[in-house]
Amino acid sequence: MQRILFCLSILIFSLPTFAQKNKKNIERNKTIDSLELLLKNSKEDTNKVIALNNLSHALDAHSEYKKALSYAFNAKQLAKKFHFNNGLADACVNLGNIYSSQGDSPKSLDNYFEALKIYETAHEQKGIAATLGDVGSLYFQQFDFDNSLNYYFRALKTGEDYLEHAKLNNNPVEVKRAKYIISAWLGNIGIVYNEEASEANPDSTVLRDSLFKKAMDYYLKALAMAKEVGDKKNIASAIGNIGIAYDNQGDHEKALDYYFQTLKIQEEVGNKGNIALWLGNIGDLYTETKKYAEAEKYLTDALKIDKEIGTLNNEMENENSLAELYTKTNRFQLALEHYKKSIVLKDTLFNANKNKEITRKEMTYEFDKKEAIEKAEQEKKDAITVAENKKEKIIIGSLVIGSMLVLLFLVFVYRSLRVTRKQKNVIEIKSRETELQKQIIEEKNKDITDSLTYAKRIQHAKLPKKEEIYSALPNSFVLFKPKDIVSGDFYFFHRNNDSVFIAAADCTGHGVPGALMSMIGSDKLEDAVCQSTHTSEILNQLNKGIKTTLRQSASDESTRDGMDIALCSINLEHLIVKYSGANRPLWIIRKGQTILEEIKPTKKAIGGLTDDSQQFETHEIKLHQGDTFYLSTDGFADTFSGKNGKKLMTKRFKEILLSIQDKTTKEQEKHLDNFIENWKAGTEQVDDILVIGVRL
Fold this sequence. Notes:
This protein has helices spanning 24-40, 46-61, 65-81, 85-101, 105-121, 125-141, 145-168, 172-199, 205-229, 232-248, 252-269, 272-288, 292-309, 312-328, 332-349, 352-390, 392-462, 466-472, 511-531, 535-549, 650-659, 665-680, and strands at residues 476-481, 489-496, 499-507, 562-571, 576-582, 586-589, 597-599, 606-607, 619-622, 628-632, 689-695. By secondary structure, it is α+β, with helices and mostly antiparallel strands. The two termini are 30 Å apart.
């Protein structure tokens, strides 16, 4: 998974950048030394607040968080003493940025909201735009994409208003600052769209392509504006994020080129945190392309910098990346050590109390804002009351006229009641007609439900008997939970001498359309298994069979329905598993290990727009007694929580599987079933759920 570079607001000070690496430390020391000298010579007044803020920001830019935090605290206290609101807001922004870099989201959000209230009171567009965007970044880190986009677009709109105001005032300095802010939030909007595309259902090709296109459009806009003002930080961000977009679309060569471009700029700027981030991204890409020696070098270098400067988020990611690398290169002891370290860091960063505190702080901010509005309205009402008291005599005189009007109104009401009684009779007649229509609809609904229930019996009759599966694979389970009465997911089993075939398939849609596809898919898969024993050839034949049956072609009128599938053949004598997949992976957990191995599928669906000649890769894996593997559709990971409305996500699903390895397969099935029901907490299931586990 790529680490992403956010553009946080910089309101009070801009550091110079230098192209020669051997001058970075010298120039850094000169900058910090000059600011420290300025601070030392400052009197105890607002100028000292500005000096403290400038020094805090400069240290933060060089990832020296401990010192930066101390100076920001001092600036905040002194600004309060002198009632210096601009200095107080700047100090809060500095604290928010530092805490965000260290992974302390609640404290970061607390300071951002404090700054935001000050900026809104002063109608300071620049500060409002920058701080709204910072809040959007924190929501993104919590995977709350909707709120993140909401704050980013609010920030962008305020930034654009700020730019127009600066142009009208013919202020080139403010114009440049406005463009810097706009560039930052354009890039971050692109990041959110890119992540949404990555998380989208692989079946939703049109949606994924649309989101990737939006992301790239915003990245290019951000890059153009950053180049316009010569802002190396945002230039590096935009270039790196374009690389991430190419990586997510499978174009590793272009992605690596962009990663190295942004790393070079970050080294010129001298920001250690960002250098570590892009070293890690390059290491991950080398792991993905199986260049393990290069991957180890870049990931180790990144981890060293993260530990030095204390960026816990990136340190956790790099520990996890090294664990994955060592697993793939069969260095399991090293993998275990790094995996344990990543878990410790994760617990530090993402415990439940922090999430609760984030929610509390936003509610406090919104409440304070509402209270201020209500107070202003009340003051307005009080002023009106004073004015009305002066007109008391006029009001008393008006009461006489008012009484006469009331009498006239009562006469009008009496006549209206007579008309209303007549209308009531008409309504009662229509109500009886509506009740009759309701009964007809209920009868039709019953007929439809009865038909679906019968269709369910037919569909279940086509599914393999679980007893047959458990007879061949005693230590296994099949958790099957359709969203509706009938399902678009189906499982498959076939025995052939010493080998068995087992598959989990996810057809386009769910309910009746999905069920029709599952019936076709099951039949075509059965035909393909009878023709070949090679998993890749079986999927080739299945792809052709689906396309032929549905008369699919490249024309716009052609149906795009198809399926994702993970198919395994198991040699029970030699414990060899052969796997081929279309958009669905194979997960393996070795006996006694705490690492989940993922065998990635071919990134093409069965049917739809996939070519007839599409080939599906075969992976042969030697397993041992006690090893467990899993096949699943995306329904379990895509289930929404009834408590916070968020998806479970694949990452959490993997963690659950790792946590239940001490249980038997039947206990695992029960655990997963209970977990997903508790997770839903009464909310509607959004997709069919299918999970298959096999322990050899």
